[in-house]
Amino acid sequence: MIHPTAIVHPNAKLDRGVEIGPYCIVGENVSVGRGTVLQAHVVVNGWTSIGEDCQIYPFATIGAASQDKKYVGERAYTRIGSRTIIREYVSIQRATGEDQVTAVGDDCLLLAYTHVAHNCILGNGITMSNLAQLAGHCVIEDNALIGGMAGLHQFTRVGRYAFVGGDSKVTRDVPPFFLVEGNPATPYGLNSVGLRRANFSEEERAEIKKFYKLLNGSKLKLSEAIEAMKAEVSTESGRHILEFLEGDSQRGILLK
Q: pTM of the prediction?
C-alpha cells in the first residue's frame, strides 16, 4: 500500500502489509517489516532496517547520515526493532564507522522531536519524552525512561529501569533503577514507581534499595561499595547493578 506521491526505490524491501503514506521517501538499502506504517512525509534512507508493526509519524527521519564530522559516507547501519512508535520530527541517524550500528530495540516509544545520534544503542521498552536528546555513542538499557528536554553527553550509559527527569543534563552513567534529575543530574532515590509497575519482587526491591544506600548513603568509595555488594548479592537485579558498575565506562558513575 504505497501512496502515489511517495518515492520508494525499486530495490527497497517492503514486507506484506507495509503502508507508505503521502510524500514519504524510502531509499535503496531500506527494509521494512510486516505491518509497519509510515504515515506521511517520513524519510528513511541509508542502510536501514525497520521491524514489524512499527508506527512512524510525519516528518520523522531514520537512517540519515551521521552529523559526526568523522563520517565520510562509509556503509553504516540503522536498525529499528518491532512495535516501536516513532512520533513527529524524531531523528535517528546512522552510525559512524564502517559496518557500525545505531540501534533502537522493540516496543520503544520515542515522542516528538527526540534525537538519537550516531552509534547509540537503545534496548527494548524505552521511552524518550518530547525533545529528549542523545549525543553519539550513548547506551540506554531496557525499560529506561528519559524525560522531556533531557540531554545526554556522548558515551553516557543509562541502566535498565532508570528514570532521567525532564530538563536534566546527564554527563555520567546512570546506574540501573536510579532516579536522577537536575543540571547537572543528581540521584534522588530509586525509580520506585517503575519497579512496582514492573512487578519486581519484594526481595529484589529490598536488595536494590540496599545497594543504592551503599552507593549514595555511605562513606564507602565506589570500589569499596562494589566489594560490599558482591558479598551480599542474591538477586538477578543486584547482579545486574554490579555488572553495570563494573562495565566499560568512559564517563564515570553518577553518584551523590
A: 0.97
Q: What is the Cα–Cα distance from 248 to 245, expressed in whole angstroms?
A: 8
- Please answer whether residues 211 and 238 qualify as being in contact, where contact means their C-beta atoms are separated by less than 8 angstroms: yes
Is CATH 2.160.10.10 what the domain over 7-192 is classified as, yes or no?
yes
Grid coordinates representing 46 are: 541509508
The cell numbers describing 90, all together, are 524524531
CA 150 to chain centre: 13
Beta bridge partners of 48: 30, 78
User: Per-block average pLDDT, block size 10, for the chain (256 residues)?
Assistant: 97 98 98 98 98 98 97 98 98 98 98 98 98 98 98 98 98 98 97 96 97 93 96 97 97 96
Domains of the chain: which residue ranges? Answer: 7-192, 196-245
Q: How far apart are CA 76 and CA 105, in angstroms?
A: 17
